[in-house]
Amino acid sequence: MSSTYRPDGTPPLEVRDVTVRFAGLTALDAVSFTVEPGTVHAVIGPNGAGKSTCFNVLSGVYRATTGSVRFGTAELTSLRPHEVAALGVARTFQNIALSPRLPVRDNLLLGRHRLTRAGFVASGLRLPGARREERAHLARVAEIAEFVGLGAHLASPVGLLPYGVQKRVELARALAMEPKLLLLDEPVAGMNSGERVEMAELIVSVKRSLGISILLVEHDMGMVMRLADRVTVLDFGKRIADGPPDEVRADPKVIGAYLGES
Ligand SMILES: Nc1ncnc2c1ncn2[C@@H]1O[C@H](COP(=O)(O)OP(=O)(O)O)[C@@H](O)[C@H]1O
Ligand SMILES: [Mg+2]
C-alpha cells in the first residue's frame, strides 16, 4: 500500500500505574506497560484478568481511578472516546458497529469522517472541492480494502459477508482513520483456525507495511506468541509478567495463571 499517510513520529503509549475500581472490585491494580512505536504489544490473561477494562481505559470508554496513560504529550485518561480517536488512536468495535446494509466501501468511508475536511454540507452541495476530496477518499478506501483482502467485496453489503470477512471490515474501518496506534480487542474471537492464522498474518503486515503500533488484547496465548513483539500478562487485575513472548511463555507465574483457569 502507498505510504502517503504513513504516520510520522508515532509516540510510545505509556501506561503508568493504572488502577480501575468498580464497587468493591479492583479490575486493574497499578498496571504499567509501554507500547513502543511500530510494535505489536499484546495484553493477555485468563478470563476476568482485566484485559477489556484496560482496553476501555485506553480508548476513553472507562475512567481510570488513578494512574496515567500518555500518548506523546497527550494524557488520555482525561479524554473522551472521540478525543482519543482524534489523536490517531483507533479501535475496532464488534460487528454491531458496522452498518450491515451498507456496502463495505461506505462502511470504510464512515471510518474516514475525522479526516473529512469538506464535511457533510459541502459534500451535499457537490462543491468542486468536495468532489475532489471524495474521489481521494474513495481511492484510499479502495487501497485499504485491497490491502486487507477485501478488494473483491467493496460493493457487497457487510451483513451478507461471512463472519471472518466481516472481522476484516472492522479492521479496515479502523485503518481508514489513518491511525498511529490501533487497539484490537480479541480480533480472532469466534474464528476458526484458518481464519485465525490469516488474521494474525494481516496484523503483522499492518505493522510492517504501515508502521502502525498495535495493542492487542487477547485471551488465546498461542495467537499472540506468533505475532507480538512484547507481551504483558494480567491476572486478577495485576501485571504478573512483561517481556518478549518466549520469556513470558516460560514464566512459571504465567503458566500457573493459565492452568488455574477452569
Ligand atoms: N463495568 C463494570 N462494572 C463492574 N465490574 C466490571 C465492569 N467491567 C468489568 N468488570 C469486572 O472487572 C473484572 C475484569 O473484567 P474484564 O476487564 O472484562 O476482564 P477480561 O477482559 O480480562 O476477561 C471482572 O471481574 C469483571 O467482572
Ligand atoms: Mg474481555
TrEMBL record:
Transmembrane region(s): none
SMART domains: AAA
Gene3D superfamilies: P-loop containing nucleotide triphosphate hydrolases
CDD domains recorded: ABC_Mj1267_LivG_branched
GO molecular function: ATP binding; ATP hydrolysis activity
Protein name: Branched-chain amino acid transport system ATP-binding protein
The keyword Ribonucleoprotein is assigned to this record: no
Record's keyword terms, sorted: ATP-binding, Nucleotide-binding, Transport
GO cellular component, one term: plasma membrane
Domain of life: Bacteria
PROSITE patterns: ABC_TRANSPORTER_2
Annotated ABC transporter domain residues: 13-261
Pfam families, per the entry: ABC_tran, BCA_ABC_TP_C
Keyword Nucleotide-binding: yes
Cross-referenced SUPFAM superfamilies: P-loop containing nucleoside triphosphate hydrolases (SSF52540)
